[in-house]
Design a protein that fits this description.
The complex is a heterotrimer.
Chain A: H1 2-16, E1 22-31, H2 38-57, E2 61-63, E3 66-76, H3 81-93, E4 99-101, H4 106-119, E5 122-125, E6 142-144, H5 149-163, E7 169-175, H6 178-193, E8 197-203, H7 211-218, E9 224-226, H8 232-245, E10 250-253, H9 259-266, E11 274-277, H10 284-296, H11 305-322, H12 327-336, E12 350-351, H13 353-356, E13 361-362, E14 366-372, E15 375-382
Parallel strand pairs in A: 1-3, 1-4, 4-5, 5-6, 7-8, 7-9, 9-10, 10-11
Antiparallel strand pairs in A: 2-3, 11-14, 12-13, 14-15
Helix pairs in contact in A: 2-11, 3-4, 5-6, 7-8, 8-9, 11-12
Chain B: H1 4-35, H2 42-59, H3 64-82, H4 94-116, E1 130-133, E2 136-139, H5 140-162, H6 164-174, H7 176-181, H8 186-211, H9 220-233, H10 238-259, H11 261-278
Antiparallel strand pairs in B: 1-2
Helix pairs in contact in B: 1-5, 1-6, 1-8, 1-9, 1-10, 2-3, 2-4, 2-8, 2-9, 3-8, 5-6, 5-8, 6-8, 9-10, 10-11
Chain C: H1 3-8, H2 27-47, H3 51-75, H4 83-99, H5 105-127, H6 132-152, H7 154-157, E1 163-164, H8 176-199, H9 201-211, H10 213-218, H11 223-249, E2 251-252, H12 259-272, H13 278-293, H14 298-315, H15 321-335
Antiparallel strand pairs in C: 1-2
Helix pairs in contact in C: 3-8, 3-11, 3-12, 3-13, 4-5, 4-6, 4-11, 5-11, 8-9, 8-11, 12-13
Classes of the chains: A alpha/beta, B mainly alpha, C mainly alpha.
Chain lengths: 387, 288, 339
């Protein structure tokens, strides 16, 4: 007890005699913390917290002569448009933040983008919809820091076509929710551009029994089954039920990633499954992230967490480079820090001009993994093209 | 597309689908028939059954038959605990029960989220591997499920038709007041009906969780299906629930395989709406 | 009893009677309460001009339209689980009129109301013949079908990704203050309309119909015609909410119009009170504001909601509005006096 008092006193003294006063810098975070999307909301929260840990270990954010301690203010958007809108409003008008990371789901992001641009608050988001970047505001104040299907889809399909030119007919089964309906057309175009014949089928979100649809698929003589935008649980069930119904050809996923769930649900049936992946756990850079994560939390690391860590680190670097917290200057700095490498996803590069009319899409590295003997192995790493 | 191998597969799929639907629907209709309550919390109890099975079978490694029976009995016992607190207020009050039990559903599901966390889990299958019957392929696990469902349904039917309590329950389902005047203790009948109904829901939930996935929200879909199946068959009618479940399962299998998922949903809903308008008491229900 | 009958029987007719459900003779009290409420609703944004609170306030006003219009349907004795779907129909119709056909906003809003109302007119006569529980089930399925149309009809509705980039109603009302007052004004009109209907001859006929349908029919109430009229009107008002919501959020997608949202509107009525117009208004504030100000424990909130629904349905069948009456009863009983 006495020992603790001594330590506390020393710490207090240490803080008081710190080189300069540490001011708090509020960073807003929006993600779903209730309902079905909680895993992703937590990934966002934890990814940012880890980036903040890095900053604190280095003594704080040094911006224009002052030292700042970032603090995350996380608000739940309940994965809906209204939720995102009120969350953003709360952060801007009540918490007075100028920088927001998130949200994740397209409906939420789409509701938030107009507010950001009107209030001139910087947003680093996720979300699949093209309108997130291609809109009437020219995304003046919003950037996307996670790859969408438009970035990784065509690249992956091109890779597969070169590796397996024998595959001719692909089946896409997707949920008819926002992600599925946004993703499938992009994939269809990319497959057709590579000479594939495409068969698509949508199902109602909440379905778990796919054997009728898979029986229907079997009758089409498919040689490639793409799990695309299916949620991890459904992807696992689709793979398992497809194999059980007698489908023998290749299965892969241009989307997800759901590799862990597929191995858990499919068991030995998952052998040979290939997937898009956002993270290679065996990469030396990744190990640092993994141990930092496990020092604070237990359980499986959601694949999105490192992406948000990356986004937060980019934001902090832009702030330090700008030397000020003025939103306009930080925005410009985001552009100038191209080439800065936070360590996992390669150097910062912004692209997407031909897809969105603005270059506000972060071109992050991604991996292609294969399941062999119950474990995921990285096959190759790809950087999306700047076009 | 319309080959005999595919048709046979469609029929097999239909049987598997129907098995789970009938189990859930039976409990639902029993509660309505006897106590006139619309149990909107039925899915929540199925979910609890799933988690109970998960803990007993996957965590504590009890042998499967013991695990599934114990899980279902355990959840049914929980329902009995809730009876004086919740269910008793709504007997014979159909409308209040709808909304009140919806509240119960909300409370149970979100307590589940707090206790179990949202992420989906899987329950390891009892058998891996498939059984081949000529051109047909069926996962062994699925056949086991159909077997369990058939056994439970047979037991249920035997209870209702061969025992005195079963007879008493059928009498109460027809007319509660008259049954009381005949000396039937409705308190006991209500408790028994609640127990059996939730037992079947929990069992169906365990099977559902094992076949698909386990999460606090998994009960939503079985609830919706139970609802529709029971309307189809006639609310309060036990043979109706069975017939409705079989029809719905086969229709879904057939339509989804040959015409896709959207057509299947639209047609199923459309038919049920049409039925409600023309014959609201369902196929085997009694007009009021 | 109607005023004319009362006069014929030489019973004094109260001078002001603004609502039928809680009796005559308290008109003066009612009016002053309404004035206080009006002053509050108009005044608070001037004292607390925070855009976040204004957003919540606007959302409450929007939902109040839906809850109050559903209240009309409930007073005829039917619970509709498709109300949010009708909000959606109005939203999409308004947005498509404005963005695709280039019509001015007011016309769009009317088109929205018209679309919902027309759909109600087509469906109403068929489904309103069904009794209580069957009507609930049919509207549940109908709501699902409408939602599936929103999801599947991609070229028109944008499918699950909805429609983005909806313009605000008018440059004047694009500030948080402007939007709040705009929505408040229209909501007040809609709710006022509901109040007028409920306190009129029609309102009494509705209550009679709900309590004893066959008797009402014998007394000359055109039951089906009245039910359909109210249903069409209520769904039209829901369409107004849809049009306003679309231009407020500037983005609509099918998930905002599903059975869960319809259920929320029903819950607002149930918890607040099903037999008095104040009920859904109380319920709306409760259900929309509560989660906003109690963030961080969303699951616990939902558990509490669930339990309060059970308690209300079991013990207070008339909803929270009854608390006032019940408390008065208890106090009066304790004082040993009759009212």
């Amino acid at each position: 007890m006495f020992g603790r008092l001594v330590v506390a006193a020393l710490v207090a003294l240490g803080l008081a005699s710190g080189a300069s006063a540490q001011e708090e810098l509020k960073i807003g975070g929006i993600g779903s913390l209730s309902g079905g999307g909680t895993a992703w909301g937590l990934a966002l929260q934890r990814g940012i917290e880890l980036a903040i840990d890095d900053v604190n270990k280095a003594g704080g954010l040094k911006i224009g002569g002052k030292v700042y301690r970032p603090r995350l203010v996380m608000v739940d958007d309940q994965y809906s448009a209204t939720g995102g809108r009120t969350a953003a409003q709360r952060l801007i008008s009540v918490e007075n933040v100028k920088f927001i990371i998130g949200p994740i789901g397209s409906p939420s992001v789409l509701a938030v983008v107009p507010i950001m641009n009107q209030a001139k608050v910087l947003l680093l988001s996720d979300g699949f919809a093209v309108s997130i970047l291609k809109n009437e505001f020219n995304s003046a104040y919003n950037y996307r820091v996670m790859n969408s299907n438009v970035e990784f889809g065509p690249a992956m399909i091109k890779w597969l076509h070169q590796k397996r030119p024998d595959l001719k007919k692909v089946a896409l089964i997707a949920p008819n929710d926002a992600v599925g309906q946004a993703v499938v057309p992009t994939l269809v175009t990319a497959y057709k551009a590579n000479g594939f014949e495409v068969w698509t089928e949508f199902y109602e979100r909440g379905t778990k029994e796919f054997t009728p649809l898979l029986t229907r698929m079997l009758a089409q003589n498919i040689d490639l089954f793409d799990l695309n935008s299916n949620a991890p649980g459904e992807a696992g069930l689709l793979l398992k039920q497809a194999r059980e119904v007698g489908y023998k050809n290749m299965i892969w996923q241009v989307g997800g990633p759901s590799v862990d769930e597929i191995i858990a649900i499919g068991g030995p049936l998952a052998e040979g499954f290939i997937s898009y992946d956002v993270f290679d756990f065996n990469d030396p850079h990744a190990k640092a992230f993994v141990s930092a994560y496990h020092a604070r939390w237990s359980g499986i690391i959601n694949a999105q967490a490192p992406g948000w860590y990356n986004g937060a680190k980019i934001l902090f670097k832009a702030m330090e480079t700008a030397g000020t917290l003025d939103v306009e200057k930080v925005r410009e700095a985001l552009k100038t820090i191209e080439g800065y490498d936070p360590g996992i996803f390669g150097p910062v590069a912004w692209g997407g001009k031909s897809d969105y009319d603005v270059e506000h899409q972060l071109l992050a590295n991604f991996w292609i993994t294969e399941v062999k003997n119950g474990k995921a192995n990285a096959l190759t790493v790809i950087t999306p093209e700047k076009h | 597309m319309f080959t005999s191998a595919i048709l046979a597969q469609v029929i097999l799929n239909g049987v598997c689908l129907s098995a789970i639907y009938v189990l859930v629907a039976l409990g639902f209709t029993l509660l309505f028939g006897i106590m006139k309550i619309v149990n909107f919390a039925h899915g929540a109890f199925a979910m609890l059954g799933g988690y109970a099975l998960y803990y007993l079978y996957a965590e504590f490694r009890l042998p499967y038959p013991a695990a599934i029976l114990l899980a279902s009995v355990g959840v049914a016992a929980c329902a009995l605990v809730l009876e004086p607190l919740v269910f008793r207020w709504f007997y014979q009050k159909m409308f209040q029960s709808m909304i009140g039990l919806l509240g119960l559903n909300m409370a149970i599901v979100f307590t589940g989220v707090i206790v179990f966390d949202v992420y989906e889990r899987s329950i390891p299958p009892v058998f891996s591997g498939v059984v081949r019957l000529g051109p047909l392929i069926a996962p062994t696990d699925r056949l086991l499920i159909v077997g369990i469902a058939a056994a439970v349904l047979a037991a249920f039917w035997a209870f209702m038709t061969r025992t005195r309590y079963g007879l008493a329950m059928r009498a109460a389902a027809q007319d509660v007041e008259t049954a009381e005047t005949q000396g039937i203790d409705t308190r006991v009948i209500y408790l028994l009906a609640l127990f059996i109904s939730i037992f079947m829901a929990a069992l169906a939930g365990g099977i559902y969780a094992q076949t698909y996935a386990l999460s606090p929200f998994m009960g939503d879909r079985p609830l919706m299906v139970a609802f529709i199946v029971v309307i189809l068959g006639g609310m309060g009618s036990i043979p109706g629930a069975a017939l409705g479940g079989i029809l719905f399962g086969f229709a879904e299998s057939f339509l989804s395989t040959f015409y896709g998922s959207a057509v299947s949903s639209f047609v199923s809903f459309g038919v049920v709406i049409a039925l409600l308008i023309v014959r609201p008491w369902g196929l085997l229900g009694t007009p009021e | 009893m109607t005023a004319s009958i009362m006069r014929k029987m030489d019973i004094p007719v109260p001078k002001v009677a603004l609502s039928s459900a809680t009796g005559e003779g308290r008109g003066g009290w009612r009016l002053s309460a309404l004035l206080v409420l009006a002053v509050f609703l108009v005044g608070w944004p001037l004292l607390l001009p925070n855009p976040f609170f204004l957003t919540v306030g606007t959302l409450i006003a929007l939902n109040a339209i839906g809850a109050a219009s559903l209240h009309l349907i409930i007073r005829t004795g039917h619970i509709s689980l498709a109300h949010a779907a009708f909000v959606g129909v109005g939203a999409y119709a308004c947005v498509l009129s404005v963005m695709t056909l280039g019509l001015p906003y007011w016309v769009g809003l009317l088109m929205g109301a018209g679309a919902s109302g027309s759909l109600a007119l087509i469906i109403g006569p068929i489904v309103l013949r069904l009794t209580g529980k069957y009507f609930v089930l049919v509207t549940f399925l109908l709501g699902e079908i409408i939602r599936m149309v929103f999801v599947e009809w991609v070229p028109v509705t944008g499918g699950s990704n909805g429609i983005f980039g909806i313009p605000t109603a008018h440059p004047i009302v694009s500030t948080p203050h402007g939007q709040y007052y705009f929505v408040l004004a229209i909501a007040a009109l809609c709710i006022g309309l509901c109040a007028c209907i409920l306190s009129s001859q029609i309102g009494r006929a509705m209550d009679a119909m709900r309590e004893a349908e066959q008797v009402a029919e014998c007394a000359g109430v055109p039951v089906i015609r009245l039910k359909v009229t109210i249903f069409v009107l209520a769904c039209g008002l829901a369409g107004v909410q849809g049009g306003l919501l679309a231009h407020f959020l500037r983005y609509i997608d099918p998930t905002a119009f599903g059975w869960v949202e319809s259920l929320n509107l029903v819950v607002m009525n149930v918890i607040g009170g099903m037999f008095h117009l104040a009920g859904p208004l109380i319920g709306t504030v409760f259900l929309v504001a509560f989660p906003e100000f109690l963030r961080g424990y969303v699951e616990l909130q939902r558990v509490i909601f669930g339990i309060s629904i059970i308690v209300v349905m079991a013990a207070l069948p008339g909803g929270m509005v009854e608390i006032g009456a019940r408390t008065r009863d208890i106090i009066a009983g304790a004082r040993g006096r009759k009212r």
